[in-house]
Amino acid sequence: MYATLKYKTFIMTLLKWIFWGGVIGVIIGTTTALLLMTNEFVGDTRKENAWLIYFLPFAGLIIGYMYMNFGKESGNDAAKGNNLVIEGVHGIARVLKRMGPIVYIGTFITVLFGGSTGREGAAIQMGGSVAEAVNQYFKVNLIDTKILLMSGISAGFGAAFGTPITGAVFGMEMVALGKMKYESFVPCLTASFVGHYITEFGWNVKHETFIIQNVPELSVASFAKVIFLAIVFSLLSVLYCQMRHGIQRVSERIFHKNHMKRAFVGGVIIVILSLIVGSQDFNGRGLDMLEQSFSEEVPPYAFIAKLVFTAVTMGMGFVGGEAIPLFFMGATLGNTLYQFMDLPLSFIAALGMIATFSGGANVPIAAFLLSLEMFGGKGIEYFFVACLISYIVSGHHGLWPSQSIYEPKSRLFMIPNGETIESVEQKSKGKL
Question: Which of 83, 113, 129, 377 is 20 to 30 A removed from 321 (C-alpha atoms)?
Fold first, then answer.
């Protein structure tokens, strides 16, 4: 009798997770398809109408107004973006259902008028919003609420990049360093795969493809070069994260956290930077140059230009995502280093793309799986090493200050368990 009850409970729980994961996947797959198609349309519109960049400061006013007037509820602030979703998983904040629609509108406005941003942030935050709606509708308990939020993250990432395996792991790995929440595996896997197939086959949305033409033969010399490059790409991710967070802290202090003023001034700065550079290659998503970096030379300063444009855009209050900008920075830096390293161009660009993301997002396993799904398993040994090296060398820095540190990356860092990226960075600056 006891054994029968145990198996019955197991089957019912499994079916429950599959059902909830499927529901979230269907909704997020549809909303992500809308995100991708609309982003493509507004991105093309901006490229055909270069004059739209001059309205970016006023677009910032609109985004700031939305977040100041509609983005706050009971002490929870949608302007925290992915950090609010992470805090929701840890049970220290509540994800707002309205956060998804707000970030979608904000992302479309940012891309249309020339802010430098990506898309996965919007997909992840919509995933969190949908998961929160499911939680409230089904009156889910606290533990299950956290698991469904992770499945929302998985669905958003898997659908946004067409990488369902990566999405499943990303949702479990993103929220904490040093710990994978395997209890959420079934709903995360279900949500990511359903979201991906709804986006790609249900709505016929095609994702970008990046092809590695050649991979160096396995040798000690090649591994030594890959390790060196992984360290460089990791430091690039740290530089971006520090600059982006620094701009946010300073601008919030100067403007007393007035989102409208911050975004307006940020828009003005981006316009000035665009005029100085003399092109809009570093505005918007930058997918054209990202793809170009795999096959031909790009400007040697491209990676640092994108870093500055994105740090100002996101640090001053515009919204979107930071994965694609990190891809861009890493791939274009790899393109620049190609002249000094005896490695194939497409390989070194791909290595930079993945390693920079691994160091910035603190998700080495998901980053490695991303390389498998994006590049068809080419160079698997090199990417595995590069992801781990970049993750370790980046230290306790990252895109999302709310990421908790279940265990430090190494005992050499002398960091107690339970800290967050934000608290570690503050202590390192002597603020605590």
Answer: 377
